[in-house]
Design brief:
The complex is a heterodimer of chains A (541) and B (316).
Chain A: H1 2-5, H2 22-27, H3 32-60, H4 71-90, H5 93-107, H6 115-137, H7 153-156, H8 161-188, H9 201-233, H10 246-280, H11 287-301, H12 316-344, H13 353-376, H14 378-384, H15 388-418, E1 420-421, H16 424-450, H17 465-495, E2 497-498
Antiparallel strand pairs in A: 1-2
Chain B: H1 9-42, H2 58-87, E1 94-101, E2 104-108, E3 114-115, E4 118-121, E5 126-132, E6 137-141, E7 146-150, E8 156-160, E9 166-172, E10 184-190, H3 192-199, H4 224-232, E11 257-262, E12 265-270, H5 273-281, E13 287-288, H6 302-314
The chains are: A mainly alpha (541), B alpha+beta (316).
């Protein structure tokens, strides 16, 4: 019914010609939907750059020693892979793409609070990315420290760390400004009647994430700036040879970078909390528990950073406290998982690709979360720290978690974003190699880690060889799935069947506007009277 | 199956804890996955056309908050007590100073003896004071499930008590530059008698097991200078066959004109004895143009240095 209402209304955001048209119409548009597409296109590009680096790294591990590239190139590759995947894909993540596209519409707003600042954030993002690319090809070669830039190696290596770190510094601004924008949007632009507790769960997650972006990112900025100053002027904050403390660097780095893990995963959890009610056609189980657990994760998640440093020589008392807090932060994540599963109970389940990807998320995230708890246990971390177990674990969380949630959110909101539908078959066909390859690749890494294989190793000892081969073959299978997935979505953007305004019979506000949405989103700002997942009346219609 | 040897008292504790947490996690994972699949089938649109709107269940929600919390706190507790064990060395433990540097490990025993391989006595505690002279390294013995970061300016302590004879890997776990993955050594667990014979023996007494076994067979009979360079990591960056790697090749280096980057700018130098010695002793003073400034200062004796330079000189 809503589709007809809008047939004569203004053009949708994809066709709209404003002051500028063509490419400029995109690059200078402050429309949150166009900014979201800018993020989507640039982030998926970076994602595939990161995948390519990962692919080569896995090829290197096919043989125990005689390699096609040098150790120095390998070190540069894993640094590149980490920096690109973390700073250019998962940290902006669902927040940048779906926070931008969906958040204003799901709140009943016409745009974010500060549209120009929003576009500026994207330029900081692209600017930072360009500097990172320049860092690869100038100076004494690409950075080789790993994405964590641990001092004093990062202070002493001859490679182009200064510029690489500066790139991350610039990217931080994109993150902070987006955070400020979304917090303000959620406070100021909710539709009349939409109280905080009538707000859907995706905005709740975005809200918690945005606060973390605002509060934690400046610490990273300060840390990276200190690294730059120390490299240029030898100020001696982190270098023990000059009276500095390398463990201080680790504290400062993780005070940001641990909350960053939750910056990556929270919006993913928010998207899952939208998808499950829609495909179960019922209200979410334990709305308030899920909403509050987002806030709890943001709060406790800011207090657990030193669990990355159990072997660094921190005091035993410090280790004990951080281990305990790590266990506490696992509880709100567990609560969410139970609530999601319970949301399927007595629903009327319409099995579609978004649900398949969302359920895969739950499974993979459970493995990621549980292996996290193993490392939180002090005695086990002494063994597992800095091995492939860590690599396996955070790929389960970041890729199995955030990545699969990103895919789920993409196929969920795709008809809304592009007004077209992809082929369901292609999505199922892509899922098999992706899911099987993923587990072959990363579960094998967990096993390698238990066996004692250290991370960031160019060459490995012979006892690890078989598992490395299995993981490499897994990477090929997974990448073929990724190619099918993105290939068929790209095809659907141009050739897909037209999608209606609400193909999934969802009830949140973004589905009440046409697909793709008009420039101003709503002709008339809606008034909200129900809680967000009110299916009771729609069920029959 | 030789998955990973278990060779210390702490390893036994850690593996037990690991197994318990693993089983617990597996039960939860299987339960959650089975439930998801069951619900998706049982409540599919076809079988269950009308959804029931259930908003929550207070008692159930409290249960699944409190039960995981208790389990997690229990995991914390057992993780902590085992960790505490690994941190408190018995008083009679022999203290060995472990020093990491790019890209070797060295071990210094209480009587001053120094080795590049760690010797430990079966069923006797040994305490390690781990340190680094340059950047961060990670000292890791998988068979003992133990690890401590080697941090310059700081001493980190761990201890172990071996429970099995044998040779076990030592690996570096913190990225430390181009030869990170070759920063390897071994710990050899020997009987007390054997250890004492070496430890209290005269300088040059045979080490607990034949030293020859240490040198991999494929390197047997190579020039002495290579045997000096290999453990110092030189060959990770400098080839002897003329191929440029991270650093310039040694072949044909002697007598060559090279452009070098110095603190004050570019300079043109001829690679003679003096320049080679300087390049080894103070690697960052003059860096051959086009190569990264990356070479660490590696301790080398005067006599050893002469032999290395003489070798490079011959490598035409």
């Amino acid at each position: 019914m809503s589709t007809q209402q809008h047939t004569t209304a203004e053009p949708n955001y994809l066709e709209y010609d404003g002051k500028h048209n063509g490419l400029l119409g995109w690059l200078l548009s402050t429309d949150h939907k166009r900014v979201a597409i800018l993020y989507l296109v640039s982030m998926v590009t970076f994602f595939f750059a990161g995948v390519s680096a990962g692919f080569v790294m896995r090829l290197v591990q096919l043989t125990p020693f005689h390699k096609m590239i040098t150790a120095q190139t390998y070190n540069a590759l894993f640094t590149f892979h980490g920096v690109v995947m973390i700073f250019l894909f998962v940290i902006p993540g669902l927040n940048a793409v779906f926070g931008n596209f969906v958040l204003p519409i799901i709140l009943g707003a016409k745009d974010v609070q500060f549209p120009r600042l929003n576009l500026a954030s994207w330029y900081f993002f692209i600017g930072g990315a360009l500097i990172a690319v320049i860092a690869l090809f100038t100076g004494n070669g690409p950075p080789d420290t790993g994405w964590s830039f641990y001092a004093p190696f990062s202070l002493k290596t001859g490679t182009n760390v200064t510029l690489g770190v500066f790139a991350a510094f610039i990217l931080g601004f994109s993150s902070m400004l987006t955070g400020i924008n979304f917090v303000t949007t959620i406070h100021r632009l909710r539709a009349p009647g939409m109280t905080f507790f009538k707000m859907p769960l995706f905005p709740w997650a975005v809200y918690a994430t945005s606060w973390m972006q605002i509060l934690a990112t400046p610490v990273l900025a300060v840390t990276l700036l200190l690294v730059i100053l120390e490299r240029l002027f030898g100020i001696g904050i982190f270098d023990p040879a000059k009276g500095g403390d390398p463990v201080l660097y680790q504290h400062m780095f993780w005070i940001y970078s641990h909350p960053a893990v939750y910056i990556m995963i929270l919006p993913a959890m928010g998207a899952i909390s939208e998808i499950l009610p829609t495909f179960a056609q019922r209200t979410i189980f334990g709305y308030k528990a899920i909403a509050f657990s987002s806030i709890a994760i943001a709060g406790f998640g800011s207090l657990v950073w030193a669990h990355h440093m159990f072997t660094s020589g921190m005091s035993d008392f410090g280790n004990m406290i951080f281990s305990l807090l790590t266990m506490v932060v696992a509880v709100p994540s567990a609560i969410k998982v139970f609530n999601w599963v319970a949301t399927l109970y007595k629903g009327s389940i319409n099995f579609q690709p978004p649900l398949l990807y969302a359920l895969s998320f739950i499974f993979l995230f459970c493995i990621g979360g549980m292996t996290g708890v193993w490392q939180g246990a002090l005695a086990l971390d002494i063994h597992l720290h800095d091995t492939y177990f860590i690599v396996g674990h955070f790929h389960y969380v970041m890729f199995g978690g955030t990545g699969f949630a990103f895919f789920a959110a993409l196929v969920y909101w795709f008809p809304k974003m592009f007004g077209r539908m992809y082929s369901n078959t292609a999505m199922y066909v892509a899922w098999f190699p992706m899911f099987i390859g993923f587990n072959m690749l990363y579960f094998t890494m967990l096993i390698l880690g238990m066996q004692g294989m250290p991370r960031r190793y160019y060459a490995h000892l012979p006892q690890y060889h078989l598992a490395h081969v299995v993981a490499t073959v897994g990477s090929w299978i997974m990448i073929s799935g990724l190619l099918i997935f993105f290939g068929s979505l790209l095809h659907a953007v141009f050739r897909g069947k037209k999608a209606g305004s609400n193909p999934w019979h969802a009830v949140t506000l973004e589905w009440s506007v046409p697909s793709p949405p008009p420039v101003e989103n709503f002709d008339e700002v809606p008034t909200v009277t129900h809680e967000p997942y009110h299916f009771a009346k729609e069920a029959g219609s | 199956m030789n998955f990973l040897p278990k060779a210390s008292t702490f390893a036994t504790q850690a593996d037990k804890l690991f197994l318990q947490i693993f089983v617990l996690s597996l039960v939860f994972l299987v339960f959650i996955t089975a439930l998801m699949i069951y619900f998706v089938i049982k409540y599919s649109k076809k079988r269950h056309p009308k959804a029931e709107q259930i908003e929550g269940h207070t008692l159930l929600e409290i249960t699944w908050t409190v039960v995981p919390l208790l389990l997690f706190v229990a995991i914390f507790y057992y993780g902590w007590t085992s960790y505490d064990y690994a941190r408190r060395a018995p008083r009679d433990a022999m203290v060995v100073k472990v020093t990491g540097r790019q890209w070797t490990w060295s071990f210094k025993y209480p009587n001053g003896k120094q080795t590049d391989k760690l010797y430990a006595v079966l069923d006797r505690p040994m305490k390690l004071d781990v340190n680094s002279v340059d950047i961060l390294h990670g000292f890791y013995i998988p068979a003992f499930r133990l690890k401590a970061d080697a941090v310059p300016g700081r001493t980190n302590t761990i201890w172990f008590q071996p429970t099995r004879l044998g040779t076990y890997d030592i690996q570096c776990t913190v990225i430390c530059g181009v030869n990170h993955s070759s920063m390897l050594s071994h710990v050899e667990v020997v009987r007390e008698k054997e250890f004492k014979a070496w430890y209290f023996g005269p300088e040059g007494a045979p080490e607990p097991t034949a030293v020859a076994a240490l040198a991999p067979p494929e390197h047997a009979g190579e020039p002495e200078a290579l045997a000096l360079m290999r453990p110092r990591g030189c060959l990770g960056c400098h080839s002897i066959d003329g191929k440029p790697m991270v650093g310039p090749t040694f072949r044909g280096l002697y007598g060559k004109q090279e452009e070098v980057v110095t603190k004050t700018g570019l300079a043109r130098v001829t690679m003679d004895d003096e320049r080679l010695r300087l390049a080894i002793l103070e690697p960052s003073r003059e860096v051959v143009r086009g190569y990264p400034e990356q070479m660490p200062v590696v301790p080398i004796g005067d006599d050893e240095l002469n032999r290395v330079v003489a070798y490079i000189k011959e490598l035409k």
